């Protein structure tokens, strides 16, 4: 087995991360930075390359790289098609562009698929043959593992659960539609909901993020707790749909808003009890065990499976 590490990137709408991972999963380096999501392709590529340089300061040279990123995307073709959370990213051959700058082969994968693989192999879903991973952050993404294999669908487009409709109306979703799960239940949506209430109060308070609302609820602030309960109901409605669609052994919630899982969970479970048929209500609902490292860990596994000379791991997908 080769001892070559893998350089992995997790590109989100708010933060981007990079890690150098050894064959046994040890992180030799891990760095992150804000994503310049509104500044176009060049600025994001510059940021990813800067993270790569910081990882390479360890003196250990990777032989391949992997990028997990928001969909929709064409993973085999290495192209990001039109991610709603990144401005100007339309049909971008990101694997080729990043690979040329790094001097490495770069594999592309949907971020939620990579996180689902990480959690199924090493996290909350260990031992589960079927799993749905939901990342709740700037947007909402999904990775689905059915009978031990990643569900990819036509053109690899399966799993865009953030854009299933769970209501008739909402604020406009980043995809241009209304009523999307993402528009109603993402971390961004929680921040917007709080901002609307604060504007109504006209107290000059700056608009919060979803994380801000979670932290305020954890401190016991009444308004924040009410907003978190309402948000949990929207999450529960979407989760109930996913249970009906995929009947997984376990449903795992990750992403930035998972840091408030304990606060959101009662309302999520109450909504599942109202919306899901009895046979689906007992499905374990868990917080991601790997936290924000799930995508990086899963991506490293995917790269090693795709490039056998880097060493074999447990097979999935």
From TrEMBL:
Family matches, as Pfam families: ROK
InterPro entries registered for this protein in UniProt: ATPase_NBD, ROK, ROK_cs
GO molecular function, one term: kinase activity
SUPFAM superfamilies the record matches: Actin-like ATPase domain (SSF53067)
Transport listed as a keyword: no
UniProt keyword list: Kinase, Transferase
Top-level taxonomic group: Bacteria
Family indicated by similarity: Belongs to the ROK (NagC/XylR) family.
Name of the molecule in the record: Glucokinase
Native source species: Alloyangia pacifica
Lineage: Bacteria, Pseudomonadati, Pseudomonadota, Alphaproteobacteria, Rhodobacterales
């Amino acid at each position: 087995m080769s001892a070559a590490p893998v350089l992995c990137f997790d590109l989100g709408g708010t933060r981007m991360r990079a890690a150098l991972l050894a064959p046994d999963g040890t992180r030799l380096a891990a760095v992150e930075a804000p994503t310049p999501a509104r500044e176009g392709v060049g600025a994001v590529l510059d940021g990813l390359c800067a993270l790569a340089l910081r990882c390479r300061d360890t003196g250990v040279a990777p032989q391949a790289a992997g990028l997990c990123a928001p969909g929709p995307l064409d993973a085999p073709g290495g192209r990001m098609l039109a991610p709603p959370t990144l401005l100007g990213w339309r049909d971008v051959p990101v694997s080729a562009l990043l690979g040329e700058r790094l001097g490495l082969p770069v594999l592309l994968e949907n971020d939620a698929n990579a996180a689902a693989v990480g959690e199924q192999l090493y996290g909350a879903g260990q031992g589960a043959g079927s799993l749905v991973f939901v990342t709740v952050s700037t947007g909402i993404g999904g990775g689905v593992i059915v009978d031990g294999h990643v569900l990819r669908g036509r053109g690899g487009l399966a799993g865009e659960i953030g854009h299933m409709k769970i209501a008739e109306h909402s604020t406009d979703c980043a995809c241009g539609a209304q009523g999307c799960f993402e528009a109603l239940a993402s971390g961004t949506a929680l921040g917007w909901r709080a901002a609307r209430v604060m504007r109504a109060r006209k107290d000059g308070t700056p608009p919060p993020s979803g994380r801000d609302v979670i932290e305020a609820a954890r401190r016991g602030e009444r308004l924040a707790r009410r907003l978190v309960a309402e948000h949990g109901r929207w999450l529960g409605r979407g989760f109930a749909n996913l249970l009906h669609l995929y009947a997984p052994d376990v449903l795992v919630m990750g992403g930035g808003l998972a840091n408030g899982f304990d606060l959101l969970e009662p309302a999520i479970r109450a909504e599942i009890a109202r919306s899901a048929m009895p046979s689906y209500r007992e499905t374990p609902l868990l917080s991601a065990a790997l936290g924000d490292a799930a995508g990086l860990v899963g991506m490293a596994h995917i790269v090693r499976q795709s490039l056998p000379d880097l060493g074999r791991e447990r097979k999935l997908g």
